[in-house]
Structures are given as structure tokens and as C-alpha cells.
Amino acid sequence: MTPKFKAVGDQALLVSFAEVFSDEIHDRVMALDRAISQNPPVGMIEVVPALVNLLVSFDPCQTTHEAIATDLERYLTTLTLEKVTGTLRHVDVCYDTSLAPDLEAVATATSLSQDAVINAHLAGEFSVLMYGFSPGYAYLSGVPNNIRVPRKPAAVRDVPGGSVIIADQQCLVTTLTMPTGWSRIGRSPTQILTGDPNHPFLFDVGDKIVFRRIDLAEFDRLSKAAHYV
Predict the structure, then answer these.
(1) pTM for this structure?
(2) Distance between CA atoms of 225 and 61, rounded to whole angstroms?
(3) Which of 150, 149, 159 lies closest to 180, judged by CA?
(4) Where are the alpha helices (DSSP H) in the chain?
(5) Is the CB of residue 205 less than 8 Å from the CB of residue 199?
(6) Comparing C-alpha atoms, which of 212, 197, 229 is closest to residue 88?
(7) pLDDT tens track for 57-81
(8) HSE of 4 in the Cβ direction (CA atoms, 13 Å)?
(9) What SS3 class is residue 110?
(10) Which long-range contacts (CB under 8 A, 24 or more apart) does 150-159 make?
(11) How far is the C-alpha of 165 from the C-alpha of 93, rounded, in Å?
């Protein structure tokens, strides 16, 4: 499995392992991310892992695409595919129908009751795969097979921050009011944006996520502190 290198502008290099996501591919992405982070190449500024690739940004005054590629090829020859357990994070979620406009549609599409959809979501084994699209948007794997639904044909506008959304095998807790074509099955008061410049997001890639069900009254109480309502 030989990754491909692609220059991105004059100060970044994209390393791609595949075009389609799989757990094995993502394990390789994370293994290379760890290797780079533990022993950064000269001139490296940042490494950003994604689903099937990672981006290495660098200072073009200190190094080049070719030099970075040579360093990465050396790391790849000794890559260790070990399972690293991230931090366990708990996220509150309210599934009240007033906050979950697509819960009924997901139940209908999967031939389940709404309670069964909720219970399946609570039982999911979620892991943070990557950040993308908007600040704090952590893409989670782990949506159980029996509640996987495709994206909608068109995006819905003005979806509020804190919305718990699913599409296929992925789940996400939004942080901003944004459009989305994913299904909204609940809403969370848990703050993903921390306000800490040194650790701006609640999750790290590789963290494990457990959702905890709360009722509407608790959601209203907690949301005031999170500035979602």
C-alpha cells in the first residue's frame, strides 16, 4: 500500500493512502501522524490527519516538498500500526422531537421505532476520525448499521449549533448555525468549542465518544451556559 504525494501550494504536501475510507486506511493515516508528531521534519509547521490522507504544512524558507516527501518515506518504512486509545469523552444529547426534526424520518427509513433509533445511537461505538468543514466539526465513526441513512438530496439551511446529525456511518455534533444534508436526530448542549487557544476543541482525533441521554428540561438548563439557545 504505497501512498501518493501531492504538492498543495508552495507550503504543504498531501499524503494519500486511498480514495475510499476504511478502518485499516485510517489506522495508517494516524500511525503516520504519530510518527511525524514525535519526530517532526525540519521546517514542518503542522500535520492535519483526515479520513484517508493527511496534510503536512511547512515553512518553504526552511524546506521543500521534495525534502518533506523524503522524510515521510523514511517514516513509512518503519510505520507501526498500533491501536491507540484516545480519551473517553461524554456528550449530552436530547432526543426530544422538538430538537430532532429528522428522528421520525430515520425511524421510517430504517423500519424502527423512534425509541429503537435512539437506543441504537446511544449504543454506538464512536471515534473521532477527523476535523473538517467548519470549526469544531469532529467527524465520528460508529453509527450502528441499523440506523445508517444516506444524506438528504438537498441541504437544509439554518441548522443550529449543537445539532446531533448522522449520515451513513458517520455522526457529528455541529458547533455553528450552518446548512446540512445530514439527518438531525437530537441536540446537545455540550460545548465542543472550548475557547482555549491551546486546545480549541473538546475532542482530539482518536478520542472515543459516548452519548448520554438527557431530557428537555436538562437540555434547556445546560444550553444557556453553552450559548446554543
Answers:
(1) 0.85
(2) 45
(3) 159
(4) 23-38, 65-77, 103-110, 114-122, 216-226
(5) no
(6) 212
(7) 999 999 999 999 999 999 998 887 7
(8) 6
(9) helix
(10) 151/181, 151/182, 152/181, 152/182, 152/183, 153/181, 154/181, 155/179, 155/180, 155/181, 156/180, 156/181, 159/184
(11) 11
